[in-house]
Amino acid sequence: MNASLPRRGRPKAIPENEIDEIRKWFPGIKTRRGIQNKCYEIRAIGLFYRTLGDQERFRHIIPPEADAWSGIAEFPFAILRELGRMDEGEAVEAADRICAKRMDPAESVRFLRSLRTGGRSRNASRLSLLAKLENALNTYTAAHDCDADFVLSVVEDFSEIVSETREASE
């Protein structure tokens, strides 16, 4: 293979030395994807325990550190994999939302993937649409001085528009 040719495909998200180190710790994981997933899980655990500290507000997805290391509690690895793929600020914000809404693991993963991929999905989903609408509302209210009554009146108007559109298409 010619070293001067550019590599094809997606760039590596995890450095090779990190992959090699995780492979040593988890020899039972045979696939590269499995090792990558373990890297993402470890990144998320590191973020929530080492960077942010053992915080009560994340208990829905992160068990108390003492319980986790003693084996009493289990980690929600599917959620941690998705959080580990995000930058720290996004991961904390998403974890706050998951915990506040007490989302189950499947709903959490759908929500996180929607955030991470910018909502690009083959199928329409209620969660994805809600996330987009919430994002638009947050962006607008951050730029303008709006109270809750104003926002609710706009949402009611929007509901009427959607109903009228549905009636017209039937």
Q: How would you explain this protein's 3D organization?
A:
There is one protein chain. With 170 residues, the chain is mainly α. It has two domains: 11-124, no CATH class; 138-170. It is built from eight helices and no strands. The chain has helices at 16-25, 32-51, 65-70, 77-84, 88-101, 105-116, 126-143, 148-169. The protein is globular, with a radius of gyration of 21 Å. The mean pLDDT is 83.
Please name the defining characteristics of this protein:
8 helices, 2 domains, mainly alpha, 65% helix, 170 residues
Short description:
The protein is mainly alpha-helical and 170 residues long. It has helices at residues 16-25, 32-51, 65-70, 77-84, 88-101, 105-116, 126-143, 148-169.
Give the helix/strand layout.
Elements: H1 16-25, H2 32-51, H3 65-70, H4 77-84, H5 88-101, H6 105-116, H7 126-143, H8 148-169
Helix pairs in contact: 1-2, 2-4, 4-6
> What is the overall shape?
globular
First-last Cα distance: 60 Å
- The proportion of strand residues reads under 5%
Summed up, the helix count is 8
* Whole-number tally of structural domains: 2
Total E-strand runs: 0
Portion of residues in helices?
55-70%
Topology as H/E string? HHHHHHHH
The gyration radius over C-alpha positions equals: 21 Å
**Poorly predicted ranges (pLDDT <50, ≥5 residues)?**
none
**Alpha-beta content class:** mainly alpha
The biggest beta sheet is recorded as:
none
